[in-house]
From TrEMBL:
<protein>
    <recommendedName>
        <fullName>Citrate synthase</fullName>
    </recommendedName>
</protein>
<dbReference type="GO" id="GO:0036440">
    <property type="term" value="F:citrate synthase activity"/>
</dbReference>
<dbReference type="InterPro" id="IPR016142">
    <property type="entry name" value="Citrate_synth-like_lrg_a-sub"/>
</dbReference>
<dbReference type="InterPro" id="IPR011278">
    <property type="entry name" value="2-MeCitrate/Citrate_synth_II"/>
</dbReference>
<dbReference type="InterPro" id="IPR024176">
    <property type="entry name" value="Citrate_synthase_bac-typ"/>
</dbReference>
<dbReference type="InterPro" id="IPR036969">
    <property type="entry name" value="Citrate_synthase_sf"/>
</dbReference>
<comment type="similarity">
    <text>Belongs to the citrate synthase family.</text>
</comment>
<keyword id="KW-0808">Transferase</keyword>
<dbReference type="InterPro" id="IPR002020">
    <property type="entry name" value="Citrate_synthase"/>
</dbReference>
<dbReference type="InterPro" id="IPR019810">
    <property type="entry name" value="Citrate_synthase_AS"/>
</dbReference>
<keyword id="KW-0012">Acyltransferase</keyword>
<dbReference type="Pfam" id="PF00285">
    <property type="entry name" value="Citrate_synt"/>
</dbReference>
<comment type="pathway">
    <text>Carbohydrate metabolism; tricarboxylic acid cycle.</text>
</comment>
<dbReference type="InterPro" id="IPR016143">
    <property type="entry name" value="Citrate_synth-like_sm_a-sub"/>
</dbReference>
<keyword id="KW-0816">Tricarboxylic acid cycle</keyword>
């Protein structure tokens, strides 16, 4: 038995949800480039869960169900009020999602219908709890979700208490489409491993949030913004990045386990970053990002991944940087739940082996005789 570090190249499941073949990402066979330009996030959610794009009435029904389930129990919000000041946003989200299960009577109902309903609830409620977290820590009361609007619109509304500008809704919607699913990434794998024990969907999504939090995965978008803030100016990009490269420090938002010739999602976010900069009349973050890309790709051959340009986009939308990874979760919960439903369809416990590299032929030594 020989281990493959990081399971690189290991095919661990069959899935018909999304594919990465020759660097091309598809959701249910539809190229992400096409979906980024044409699809709404709600159409993508339906596509991931049902394997086909919705008809108008199916789409209307999904939007209305998302509106119906978006409010969260008061007890969950009351619990959130007790979290310590300065609580980490992803740790809070992990706890919030876990606590949602406590107030869902069908949390442990493993029927297909209940699981599909719980997928809708999770998709509907994640934006509500993230917005509530963001408001309460600023001493503001949470805002009740709206009915009949899309996830992007509702989230921005609940965050600010104001009707969001159309351009902001469109940018957020596209970002949600681009982050919705990504084959067997670390958080999705964590979700599938959890539910393959026949644990419930809330446990699966809680595991996934824990995995997404790390800076090698979803946490990279926040880390990119920390870097941009540290750099501070276009003039400082070159010395800062050169110093990191010379000292072999990883540049967040670059590289990918699967894509070696570039992440197909990055170009859409780059374009969005440019457009938002033009609209704001402030190109600084975009120009700094482009310069970083030139240096890192030029010297290391590493290309930006989905997290790199999303940092400048979200900042230009006025979103605090520690909400970037929770926003990733608001989108990816569509993919996590799609994978969980798929796992339940043809389940088998996921239990790989380990290559033992510890000592052999050891014996128990009484504590009094240990040196
Ligand atoms: N900056 C500098 N060097 C890098 C970077 C980077 N961002 N990424 C990889 N490298 C280098 C490594 O140092 C290593 O070099 P070496 O062979 O000389 O030691 C080589 O490239 C291979 O890197 P690994 O970390 O082994 O590649 P792996 O496939 O395990 O990791 C990962 C992929 C985690 C994405 C990695 O590229 C990374 O850490 N990137 C920065 C974090 C990041 O942006 N994560 C988000 C990924 S996208 C997502 O999850 C949504």
């Amino acid at each position: 038995m020989t281990a493959t570090k990081g399971l690189e190249g290991i095919v661990a499941a069959k899935s018909s949800i999304s594919s990465i073949i020759d660097g091309v990402l598809t959701y249910q066979g539809i190229n992400i480039d096409e979906l980024a330009e044409k699809a709404s996030f709600e159409e993508v959610i339906y596509l991931l869960w049902n394997g086909k794009l919705p008809t108008q009435s199916e789409l209307d029904k999904l939007i209305s169900q998302l509106g119906e389930y978006a409010a969260v129990p008061n007890e969950v919000i009351d619990g959130l009020r007790l979290y310590p000041q300065g609580a980490n946003s992803m740790a809070s989200l992990r706890t919030l999602v876990s606590s949602l299960a406590l107030y869902d009577e069908e949390a442990n109902d493993m029927s297909k219908e209940a699981n599909y309903r719980k997928a809708i609830k999770l998709q509907a409620q994640l934006p509500t709890v993230v917005a509530a977290f963001a408001r309460l820590r600023e001493g503001k009361e949470p805002i009740a979700p709206k009915k009949g609007v899309g996830v992007a619109h509702n989230f921005l509304y609940m965050l600010t208490g104001e009707e969001p500008a159309q351009v902001a809704v469109e940018a957020m919607d596209k970002a949600l489409v681009l982050h919705a699913d990504h084959e067997l990434n670390a958080s999705t794998f964590a979700a599938r491993v959890t539910v393959a024990t026949l644990s419930d969907i809330y446990s699966g999504v809680t595991s996934a949030i824990g995995a997404l939090k790390g800076p090698l995965h979803g946490g990279a978008n926040e880390a990119v913004m920390v870097m941009l803030d540290e750099i501070g100016s276009l003039a400082n990009v070159e010395p800062y990045i050169q110093n990191k490269l010379d000292n072999k420090v990883k540049i967040m938002g670059f590289g990918h386990r699967v894509y070696k010739h570039g992440d197909p999602r990055a170009k859409h976010l780059m374009q969005m970053s440019r457009q938002l900069g033009e609209l704001k009349g402030d190109m600084k973050l975009y120009e700094m990002s482009v310069k970083i890309e030139e240096l890192v790709t030029g010297q290391k051959g590493l290309k930006p991944n989905v997290d790199f340009y999303s940092a400048s986009c979200y900042t230009m939308l006025g979103i605090p940087r520690d909400l970037f990874t929770p926003i990733f979760a608001i989108s990816r919960v569509s993919g996590w739940t799609a994978h969980i439903l798929e796992q339940f369809e043809d389940n088998r416990l996921i239990r790989p082996r380990a290559e033992y590299v510890g000592p052999a032929d050891q014996h128990y030594v009484p504590v009094s005789e240990r040196g």
